């Protein structure tokens, strides 16, 4: 009522443009905030809608494969689309083996580098090196694949693997003939791709350890290394675990670089030097060539499996990060 | 005493090992950049930027269509990803409550971790299956979805760095909240937000996997946004696994151009932030 009266009073002012302007700005002042709030809220909520749609689409489009193949899809070893055999086990095997091996190599390397950058290097040098490591993380994966095909694979073939096999060839995991493309080559490419993640997060977590903790340790007579090993690392352990999990999730979902060096053979070999296949790689290679709806549906189900694995690993990593930031806030 | 010697030696040995790790990582880095710039730079010439791919069996030619195609895809991706990320970031930084923003942040981080190939399947199901052909729309959609998480989180982070006193000042002068946000807070954080967006574009510029079955590829010019469209990353992949030496040379040249572009975006973004801090 009151606003209506005010508006009608301002209508009687002599300037013909003024009432409209006042009314318009009054309108905007009253409606602008809720409108803007609603707009930003919609955009924020759309993330949840998009992620929900993503899950739904993967689930809906893999329906045929899920109904026809059932749980046998995950346990069968045969992948022969021509004869209608779809078994996901070789891909799950390749994905898990290459990622785990990559993480096993990358974790000590990355944490070691992070310790050097956080504890030893002068701050300026540390910042420059951290920027270079971030650049390493920005290199597109297809370029790592390019380097993998034309640089790493020939190098492994000519100078690295033959001596390794001469010494360790009696072990089953290093046995068999080596053609360059293999689970091992894929793991090495993944190491280079994952290390920047581990270095950059671990360095920040290490730098965030309170200086009092270090001082207390030195005051008790510890050497620098003992301080790092017994005080700084335990204090930062959650953040480091999180960085390793994030790296693992990236390795599991990595497509292009792996496709180019793994040999794309759906088999479960006992040797690391044998070619293999990963979930992401088979989707990349066969999706456009998939003839028949069951084939396509099976590939989409593989996507669903990959999505599930990475979501679990990522979820764990994020929870660890949350726990770390909470822990730092409380003391 | 021997104990102390032992401890000192451990100290020295362990730190030399971390030094070796760091040298190894940085060494690999310089080796990769050096090799790529040396090997790729040799094959880049004027034709690469101005000509179409040569027919199979002929040498020469370029990737002009892939360069334009990549630009088109990035334009579409930015149109999808940047506004949603920007406005969503404003919501989280300015209006946030407790439970819902926490949930949005968590889901955003999860979406950020979804493998790019899975995003490709999503875009295929939503766009390609509807219209029944590959198109730049589908590729741009996939890349746009990939851009949202980083755009959102970086916008939020930089808005949070704007001091509260600026907000209070604007409100005290009689501004409404949306006026305060759009005319005071956002301009104050603009450099940071722009640098975040640039990093984001640089990240999706190199994405290959989500384009394989959305924008597909094309050996010729593609008009508009409704045709299969060539892009640099997909060309690198196709040419690298192809059987011809000439293709391999073109792949190296394309790798060089792509990497140079990605680095330029990264370094510009870094400069934007440091300039903001020193001012």
Mind explaining what this structure looks like?
The complex is a heterodimer of chains A (331) and B (279). With 331 residues, chain A is mainly α. Chain A has a domain at 87-282: MetI-like (MetI-like fold, Orthogonal Bundle). Chain A has 13 helices and two strands; from the N terminus they run ααααββααααααααα. Chain A has helices at residues 2-10, 17-61, 63-69, 72-75, 89-120, 123-138, 141-168, 183-207, 211-219, 224-253, 256-261, 279-286, 293-330, and strands at 79-80, 85-86. Chain A has a two-stranded antiparallel sheet. In chain A, helix 2 packs across helix 13. Chain B has 279 residues and is mainly α. Chain B folds into two domains: 2-43; 46-278, MetI-like fold (Orthogonal Bundle). Chain B has eleven helices and no strands.
For the structure shown, list the relevant keywords.
heterodimer; A: 331 residues; mainly alpha; MetI-like fold; two-stranded antiparallel ribbon; 2 strands; 78% helix; disordered N terminus; B: 279 residues; 11 helices; 77% helix; globular
Helices and strands in order:
The complex is a heterodimer of chains A (331) and B (279).
Chain A: H1 2-10, H2 17-61, H3 63-69, H4 72-75, E1 79-80, E2 85-86, H5 89-120, H6 123-138, H7 141-168, H8 183-207, H9 211-219, H10 224-253, H11 256-261, H12 279-286, H13 293-330
Chain B: H1 2-41, H2 46-50, H3 64-95, H4 99-113, H5 116-131, H6 136-160, H7 164-172, H8 177-188, H9 190-205, H10 232-241, H11 245-278
Query: How does the overall form of chain B come out from the CA principal axes?
Result: globular
With helices defined by DSSP (H or I, 4 residues minimum), what is the helix count of chain A? 13
Distance between the termini of chain B: 55 Å
The CATH topology of the largest domain in chain B is given as: MetI-like fold
The largest inter-chain interface, given as chain pair and residues per side, is: A-B, 89 and 89 residues
Low-confidence stretches of chain B: none
| Radius of gyration computed on alpha carbons of chain A | 28 Å
Based on the structure given, which CATH architecture of the domain at 87-282 in chain A is correct? Orthogonal Bundle
User: Biggest sheet of chain A, open or closed, and with what strands and sense?
Assistant: 2 strands, antiparallel
Number of helices of chain B: 11
Strand content of chain B: under 5%
Cα Rg of chain B: 24 Å
Helix content of chain A: over 70%
How would the global form of chain A be characterised?
A: flat
């Amino acid at each position: 009522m009151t606003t209506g009266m005010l508006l009608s009073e301002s209508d009687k002012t002599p300037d013909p443009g003024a009432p409209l302007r006042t009314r318009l700005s009054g309108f905007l002042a009253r409606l602008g905030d809720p409108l803007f709030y609603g707009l930003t809220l919609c955009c924020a909520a759309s993330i949840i809608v998009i992620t929900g749609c993503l899950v739904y689409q993967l689930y809906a489009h893999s329906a045929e494969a899920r109904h026809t193949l059932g749980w046998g899809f995950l346990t069968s070893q045969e992948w022969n689309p021509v004869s209608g055999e779809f078994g996901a086990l070789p891909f799950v095997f390749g994905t898990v083996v290459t990622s785990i091996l990559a993480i096993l190599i990358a974790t000590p390397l990355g944490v070691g580098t992070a310790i050097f950058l956080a504890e030893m290097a002068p701050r300026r040098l540390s910042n420059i090196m951290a920027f270079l490591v971030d650049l390493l993380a920005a290199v597109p994966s297809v370029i790592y694949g390019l380097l993998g095909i034309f640089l790493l694979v020939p190098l492994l073939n000519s100078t690295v693997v033959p001596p390794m096999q001469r010494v360790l060839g009696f072990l089953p995991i290093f046995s068999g003939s080596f053609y360059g493309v293999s689970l091992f080559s894929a793991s090495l490419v993944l190491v280079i791709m994952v290390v920047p993640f581990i270095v950059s997060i671990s360095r920040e977590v290490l730098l965030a350890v309170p200086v009092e903790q270090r001082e207390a340790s030195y005051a008790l007579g510890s050497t620098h290394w003992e301080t790092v090993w017994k005080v700084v690392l335990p204090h930062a352990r959650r953040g480091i675990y999180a960085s390793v999990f994030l790296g693992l999730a990236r390795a599991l979902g990595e497509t292009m670089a792996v496709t180019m060096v793994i040999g794309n053979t759906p088999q479960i070999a006992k040797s690391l030097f044998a070619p293999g296949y990963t979930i992401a790689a088979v989707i990349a290679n066969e999706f456009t060539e998939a003839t028949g709806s069951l084939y396509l549906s099976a590939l989409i189900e593989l996507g669903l499996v990959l999505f599930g694995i990475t979501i679990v690993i990522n979820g764990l990593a994020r929870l660890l990060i949350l726990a770390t930031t909470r822990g730092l806030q409380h003391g | 005493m021997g104990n102390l010697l032992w401890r000192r030696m451990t100290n020295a040995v362990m730190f030399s090992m971390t030094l070796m790790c760091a040298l190894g990582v940085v060494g690999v880095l310089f080796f990769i950049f050096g090799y790529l710039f040396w090997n790729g730079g040799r094959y880049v010439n004027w034709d690469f930027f101005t000509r179409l791919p040569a027919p199979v069996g002929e040498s020469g030619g370029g990737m002009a269509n892939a360069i334009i195609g990549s630009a088109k895809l990035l334009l579409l991706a930015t149109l999808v990803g940047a506004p949603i990320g920007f406005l969503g970031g404003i919501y989280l930084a300015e209006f946030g409550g407790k439970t819902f923003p926490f949930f949005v942040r968590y889901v955003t981080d999860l979406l950020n971790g979804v493998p790019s190939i899975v995003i490709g399947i999503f875009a295929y199901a939503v766009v390609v299956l509807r219209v029944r052909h590959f198109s730049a729309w589908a590729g741009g959609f996939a890349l746009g979805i990939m851009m949202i998480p980083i755009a959102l989180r970086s916008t939020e982070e930089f808005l949070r760095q704007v001091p509260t006193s600026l907000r209070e000042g604007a409100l005290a002068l009689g501004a409404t909240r949306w006026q305060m946000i759009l005319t005071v807070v956002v301009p104050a954080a603009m450099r940071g937000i722009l640098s975040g967006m640039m990093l984001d574009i640089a990240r999706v510029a190199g994405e290959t996997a989500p384009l394989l079955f959305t924008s597909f590829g094309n050996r010729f010019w593609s008009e508009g946004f409704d045709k299969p469209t060539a892009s640099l990353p997909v060309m690198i992949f196709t040419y690298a696994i192809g059987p011809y030496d000439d293709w391999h040379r073109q792949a190296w040249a394309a790798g060089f151009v792509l990497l140079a572009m990605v680095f330029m975006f990264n370094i510009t973004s870094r400069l934007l932030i440091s300039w903001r801090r020193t001012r």
